Here is the input.
Amino acid sequence: MLDKSFIGLETEPRSAEVEKGQLRFFARATGETNPVYFDEKAAKAAGHPALPAPPTFLFCLDTMAPSSESIMGKLGVDIGRVLHGEQQFTYGKPIYAGDTITMKTKISDIYDKKGGALDFIVQDMEAVNQRGESVGVSRTVIVVRNG
Here is the structure.
């Protein structure tokens, strides 16, 4: 069973720059067909200042700027026992090519099920753009198989 005293642990802020190529690649990989995600003229004609990020791109940003301190390492979790249990997004301001996004992750909850056979780690990653505006929160639930 994981130590619940880690609830509230936060990572240091980390930043990632959003590039056009990343946005196009992500849009293709997720099956997006809307031209605003590929063509700058189409994006501007639709009222965007630059190529917008497709939905769920926030998850990708989190992996592009990993924390220098591993939360799983601090918790003593064997990464081979980890499953991705759930992902939720709460959207804020749109993300655009050229933005710099700063992220901070916090452990919001730790609990167990099945008599301790499974531990659950709830992490909330908050993200803001270079203007300090919230672009969203990503909640991830990690499942750790014990035994």
Remarks:
- The first strand starts at residue 14 and ends at 17.
- The two ends are 10 Å apart (CA to CA).
- The chain has a mean pLDDT of 93.
